Amino acid sequence: MELLHSGKVRDVYADGDDLLLVTSDRISIYDVILPTPIPDKGKILTQLSLWWFEQLSDVIPNHVISSTDVPSEWAGRAIRCERLDMVMVECIARGYLAGSGLKEYERDGAVSGVALPPGLIEGSQLPEPIYTPTTKAAVGEGHDEFMTFADVQAKVGDDAAEELRNVTLEVYRRGQEVAATKGIIIADTKIELGIAKDGTLKLGDELLTPDSSRFWAADEWKPGGTQRYLDKQFLRDWSGSLTEWDRTDPGPEIPEEVVAATRNRYIEVYERLTGESWK
């Protein structure tokens, strides 16, 4: 097999006409890969993505060919998938105000050109979910930047832009609907979309995981401050206390207790969503 790409978390191999997507235990924040892995993270992300792909298969097809026809050394963390021509837009849906969306709102009163009501605060639920696409920066080439819907139209065309927005919002709506029954709020999520050989738009990469989404404990949600995160925002918050790190390479080593707390959050969200114990 040929290694085609090594990203912040995933390695992509060519195996004939198929791809093997292998999810490592690497973790990144602010586009920097930290030197300390999170044990089992790759398997948790893979298994949770597979669960979500199945839950949302009636919304949009996905790239999965097999989760078992993979080399034994990658069992549980690899997916055999079809090749997609990936859309070069980060498709993001937000139902709550947090992170970069909050900063954009505080500056402009809008996110990705979508005007929002005045007076919203950190953690506020939006009147309705919004589509807030960004550019897709390669590893080491800076940060993603917000795009307006008009920017997406200029990049991919009117019809394709409309489809990207509709699919992103429907995936978020359905995911949030499922998560709500498990006591979890999905504040926002990022999905990856690509075009298959037959021209079909399909989901790729990962889906509704603690790496690609903000998960909050619903019974503890309270606008106006930091929520109890069940995702890697916990690690970002920890890094914010490091006055000696300027968010550039090399990243800091993660202390054992922070590794354990991060891993526990990934396991908690997996178990709460799927109803299965992590083994």
Outline the structure in words:
The protein is an alpha+beta fold and 279 residues long. The chain has two domains: 2-82, Phosphorylase Kinase, domain 1; 85-243, 2-Layer Sandwich (D-amino Acid Aminotransferase, Chain A, domain 1), CATH 3.30.470. The protein is 29% helix and 25% strand. The protein contains six helices and 15 strands. The protein has helices at 41-55, 99-108, 149-156, 158-180, 233-239, 256-274, and strands at 2-6, 10-15, 18-23, 28-29, 32-33, 64-66, 78-82, 85-86, 91-96, 110-111, 114-115, 125-131, 184-195, 201-204, 213-217. A hairpin with a 2-residue loop joins strand 4 and strand 5. Helix 1 packs parallel to helix 6 (256-274) and helix 3 crosses helix 4 (158-180). The two termini are 29 Å apart.
